[in-house]
């Protein structure tokens, strides 16, 4: 059984698009995605697995999926979602200090701190974007990918209410540099400034271009080898 489990994990790694190095780093998570039950997670239906039999988890994921569909007009992704109610569980399936972690176009893990609608929507937004981009998923700029996920999840930590004419929580001139920054620098030492900056830039981008239809056009541009500019 263990051998078969790792064969399945290898297939999952291929689907996720992880190279050999990435597979080694993410090996515990990949194994958990391949066989959630082997890691103490029970199926709650709808591709949702958790270490606690809580129907609220499935409702949370379904609501997050509905928010993705409402933004795009439809949802094309169908991710497997692994949720942990304890830190021991999350570490056991390969998690770290993050609230949630999306894997390619196929799966995500949520920690106890990330098991909420906002974080679930944020991570599912990444998966939806990558699903729509297909083999061009690595062309999307990190500032755009992260900023759009913040907007779709309506994360109040990084955005003013949607009723505000300007949703930026910092001056646009202070946010704009994120476009040319390495994401590791923008989020150095656990700082969330990169999210504040990217959320501001993308919210302005969407407002200036008419919202979701502009995102669909940008996805087409990326698939055609063109770039996204602020």
From TrEMBL:
<keyword id="KW-0732">Signal</keyword>
<feature type="signal peptide">
    <location>
        <begin position="1"/>
        <end position="26"/>
    </location>
</feature>
<protein>
    <recommendedName>
        <fullName>Peptidase MA superfamily protein</fullName>
    </recommendedName>
</protein>
